[in-house]
């Protein structure tokens, strides 16, 4: 029975999802705001429980070794839950006038459960199941505004690439199973040499990389990301960039690293090249974007490039840096997307039929119209660029310094050069917000949006100024991987 | 008061009050400037409080653990060098803020202005007192960002936004990140971020100098310093930074922020100096920059532009002198550099304040429109003359003495390097001196002497109030004082600062008159040549203009604009190639990369693709099913109308069910058939709602191309897998002996599967149910729009 | 006696046909079919490995995948239908607002 208690966060979320769904049937549209509060309450409870499990340093294996509880899984669960918290708080406003509120929150909660299952999974079957659970829920969430062709296109592209990647992933997994005779991840690790020595194993690994790479939006599996992030409702983009993408990383950490450790040095080079191409392409293309959401999407591609340096270096510090980066990026990107959602809201208040609410022209003089949003977005962007005193700096610092210490100076130099490029397009948005004149008057941010954004802001600054506990837990999580 | 507490207060008081400024502004209105100036003064006095300790030769070192897991502490390290810069930052900061109360119109956004200045001041003080490199870097970037905000203070001027962005990219972007890389490399070599540890440990310094990464580390740190101090090719940001309000230019872009790079050079001096790389990089860059910038200064018609180039040139003096200290007498260059650093801060800030006054009163900064103001602005004229003559190196002002020392150090280094440097370096020094002399005279002549330019000047021009004159006068007084009594700054400021660099106690003797020396001769030559050049001043400026018109590409700014100004367009060109839109184009690279990355290791592993021999003696009924499966798959992929294609897909599903029966998994076969039926029903339901054909109209040539590519891809994948499956047979062939036994085992396995589903894999089954439930929910949500149907 | 490699080759062929379909065709429903093909290929692999190595896990995995595939198809087709309601066609390459 104690095992079950360790899954209490997931169970609470599932119960919340059901309660929301059932309650939604009996509530009038104008009272459905309450559903948002129920979801938020459920997520907060799940966060508290997850933290208590993490702080107790519980390690356990459950359900015949298909699920594990360890610092790694708990850290990632917290990432997912935090993003879910931000998104659901912001969504209280976003879906406030929608009849289908209950479905939105239920899908959101189920998506998070899927991600949490992935982070706890210790078996390919469980992992694939969680992957699909999160995937299917987010496909539906992206297409939530079913009257908007842009949203549907985003959803369609996301779905197609997602489904193709699932097929790749599954095909790869079937070979892994065939080669090693088990779906249990530690079992695969024990038989990793069977995988690596054999061409079929190589095929399997490449297919796994393709399957996970799409969630991580590594080049060349990234192309869906800009379209989807741009087309999807901003709060959902926050969920995709903040949480869904991280699910790809935890899955890759669990499965691919096992193979990578056994693989030879050429593969390290291949991954390094993949990381370099990803960050460079993301940054260069981001330069040219006039849609802020699209810019954020490409920046997200670039960040995936930085994080995947951890796969190349593979030292405990580098993995800790990667995990810390994932944590920071979740807050920075989710916060930035929520800020963009607020701007979209502001534009729609002025003009109900406005299109392309995230166009950079709409950010002109934002510091006058919405000073809090402008300031928060500036901090998020500077954090993404890696400016000191923010979470972005600390995580870049840990990751890059570990890369240098591992002797991969060239990789670190390229990554740092890339950060310089990225400063250019982040500064452009800041320039529009702070240095451009505007006509519109002052507008107050809706409270739910503002609360979510400020929470993210606080997180970004706290990690930036007092990173020690976060680094500690990231190292604890990294140690799980390298034992 | 506890000394570390005083230091920490001096750093964080400005930060703290910067946050409060917008709120205080609502109470004290436009007097906010005086309030902010007071904060500057308090910081200054706090530093005065600790200075006796430092003058006595002590250092203050105090640190608390911050991010222990990566070895980063938060600490302060105060020695003479850092105290000197901190004094400049707080002292000149105070004067500038006082001056700004009059200079800045009350209509401006004053709260923002003083907020940024206070933030900058705090960052600058924090930067110099940082005891570890990461902390130094953090404050370093903060100074760049506050500078960015201040340059862009007048947001409505496109020029100031351009300048702001340029400075951010070059100082925070390139320079800052190069510095960070350098710091990380230094840590990789020494294993610590702590500055005093590296400074104190001789063996570490030896280790650094002998390390493979020495050159890279030095280079990156130097790039950081050069970008900040506008040296070498990075000088281009400083002239554009002149779009900032003039007090800001005086404070950040002449007296303090640009000194940060020099501070860094001084700080790492004990670590890197004494090597050829240091000499070539630091002194070489300095020597080239001082001449080029001095020459370019002649062309400027905007006085602020002229001062900007002169600042670059003067900073290059200091840079060169820090670079000199390789061989014979290391202290000579360091003393000269440090002294000039102090002097430059005083006389250049004076000049900037004068320019602010002139622009404020005469409403123009164009040297061609000014002239003859000496009678109307006598006090301003006197102060300006003191500043400009000091810059020109005329005795008895402080600039004279540091220039003498610069010449002395140049001769000294030239002599120690031997032919041909013993002539070359002093010559370069004199040329720089001549240029400096010429443009210094131009400032006085252009503004105050000659005929009054009535066409462009307002009718009445007069000296400003004491509030604006006061700070300039105080600085001018210091210029004179330090010139006549050089021993005051020497013993109280320069000696501690120099001993902070060379890490030993030093006693410097200096006086205004030091006898007939080579340096004095060089000074005389400088003045003589300077007067000659000044006569040709306009001719040279015109020639430069002409040259620039003829060769617009012969300029660093041109390339900067090409790269960064058009960055958005250039990036667009690149991105167009990568992001085309149609979904098929997205799938293409995925598959292609997958194939390539499979082929690559196979080639690397140098395994030969050998022809495979098959055992075709298989029972025909299995073969028939196989062929049927392949046929239906092909049909599903190519039949041009929906219904037959759907039928093909479901036929495939059912056939796979049969395969499962071959593989002795009947329960799976049933599931497959049930699921396939469901899928078929869904497909049929959907296609009944949409047009009945695929309506694929693709141009013929594109179609052929696509088919060709796809066939290649598909067959490559197939071949790879065919090859790959070869490996699998080996480990399992031995198993095939037990086929009969296994089948018996699997017959009992019907129940095993069920048992597994509800027990062994209960959680996954639960998950599965959730997925199905969720899919239903999603479909419901996507399709059913309650009452919203058209 | 039919060997494991025959099944593996069969699944490789089906997977390749699915890939071929993905890359030449640009209709939403056809894409769904091709994805079905690829998933079926994976299922064959799983069951074949399972049968030839006395290990039941592969069959269980296959069982899960069969249901997941149906769920995925349902969601995908629902998205296509939603698009069709607005656009009157499902030619994927014409759905192209989101770029630049």
UniProtKB/TrEMBL annotation, chain C:
Its EC number is 1.6.5.11. Keywords: Membrane, Oxidoreductase, Transmembrane, Transmembrane helix, Transport. The chain crosses the membrane at residues 6-25, 37-54, 60-84. One of its GO terms (cellular component) is NADH dehydrogenase complex. It comes from the Archaea. Pfam families: Oxidored_q2 (PF00420). This is NADH-quinone oxidoreductase subunit NuoK. It comes from Methanosalsum natronophilum.
